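Sequence in, structure out.
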Amino acid sequence: MSLTTVPVSHERSAVLSRGRANPFAVLRHVDYTLVIGLIVMTIVGILLLKGAVHGIPSLRSAAEKQAVFLVVALGAMMTACLVPYQWLNRLAMIVYLFNLGALVWLLFAGHTINGAKRWVMLGPVNWQPAETMKIATVLLCAQWLALYPEKLNRLSGVLVPGVIAGVPALLILAQPDLGTASIFFFLFLTMMLMAGAKWRHLLIVCGGAGIGMASALPLLKPYQRERLLNFINPERDPLGTGYNVIQSKITVGNGGLFGQGWGQGSQSIHQFLPERHTDFFFPGAVEQWGLVGGILLLLGFGFLIWRMILIMDNARDRFGGCVTAGAIAILGCHVIFNVAMTLGMLPCTGLPLPLMSYGGTFLVTTYILFGIVLNVGSRRFVLSGP
């Protein structure tokens, strides 16, 4: 699967010229199938969240807050869809440097929660720069790949995007946030493959990244190193660092084939399952809806990715296709890593499940990313101006 530019036919030329005069013309060409699927998945997530925290006083209003975040996210997505994505191409470096500066600032003055400096306090809002940094990295990498496609034939053409993704990954690793940092590696790898980079160049960069990750192990907190060890054998510390994975597996098995019913999961009600509203959302959902429900959720994510692939394949320019490839990488990696983590197939690294795990910054930035993808799809038919 490669990124190509779609030629403009004579029939579309009239539509394109009309779109230049009307900035809202893009709304007629939005992939509303993707929009509906996105909203349905989020509402299902809110319902499952309500059932998972049912009867827990400290989380009683989590679902209601998530519904408010959804309203904000829809507004952010519409804005991202209406702004011509070519403008984002021009602003990519500024957006990247702003978020990079925020990550540096976090190391010295960030708000600490659970031993990690990941948040900036903006009044009642907690902003997590690592989430917006993903979008900034996608934009700048896409800009490079669109401007210099011929450089992908050389190692230097792969090294530059590697640095673009690697610098924020190291800053995020220092917070520490191993899970989010790992997303940047797979984001880079996916975008390079979609853009047509050569395997031997990617292997060299991946080897260097592996050495860098090994040298960064001393930066990990003791509990993070314990998580990596307990991935091999969670039973070595069943009441400590292995507790989360063990309880997660029990919760999944407790759901059986069709689940215990909405709000009836005993593992969640009795609070055996940790972080049931964030990192371990998926086991709580399976406990309520069973294996069948879990498979349906994964099929839902697969449907969204399929629609995004269609947009990527039909993007009118290389920048739009690369941005969509980056969005696919972020969504896909989050889903795969989160589900695999909760099933004990990967180390626990604290990655939430997109559209479903509780969190305002994560939901809003995810919708912004989808808004940009919808923008790419609709601009095939509408000129964005000079």
